[in-house]
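FYI - complex with adenosine-5'-diphosphate, inputs then prediction.
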Amino acid sequence: MSYLVLHNITISYGEIPVLRNFNLNVEKGAIYCLTGPSGCGKSTLLKTICGILQPQEGEILLEKQPINPEKQTIGYIPQYYGLLDWLTVKDNLFLGKKIRKIPCSSEDEQIINQLKINDLLHRYPKELSGGQQQRVALARAWMLQPQLLLMDEPFSSLDSFTAERSLELFLQLWETQNITTLFVTHNLREAARVGNYIVMLSDQPAEVREIISQKDFNRLLC
Ligand code: ADP
Ligand code: MG
């Protein structure tokens, strides 16, 4: 059985279904890039998986259990990073662990060093560049060692140079530990670099058009 199963998910805002009978099976330890037209429901899908939104129909199973953000650890990086303005970088980083009563570990420092944010710990989010905020959001999620990581267009608001560098850092981090990741992007080149699988979504209500392996996708892009 798949690691993450989305089975017949229907979710609507009011009358209009954004996802209708949506199905996706995700294997453990892979990065799935979700790509599709703007407004098709990609962000809605991630918010549903991490429990911010409740589906009207269907079920989501993570490791065979109905998904439950209180019992399972799900890292979610929203499009604009979701850092708390009134907390320092350090407090932002450790907030998730504090809430879940997870003790600090030596890996925390390693992640902070690897993502090059050790000199930023006493700053506030407003004192950071977009790339730095992005790295803090990634470190915060990664330090939880989540069973599942959800990233919503993580690099889309960065300039291309910073986006490229951030992507490299993310891939280096991911190589150390293959956390199962859903990564939303509308950038096909980025999808080809980062995704073990590329999931092509249709217009709203979104359904999976095709799932393409990285190798085949790279061949298609050439
Ligand atoms: P994507 O991330 O693929 O661009 P979204 O999931 O953000 O798309 O949105 C899917 C659809 O749902 C869009 O038509 C959007 O306008 C609508 N939508 C998103 N959030 C809300 C909301 N809170 N209330 C009503 N409609 C919404
Ligand atoms: Mg979106």
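The radius of gyration is 17 Å. The first helix runs from residue 42 to 49.
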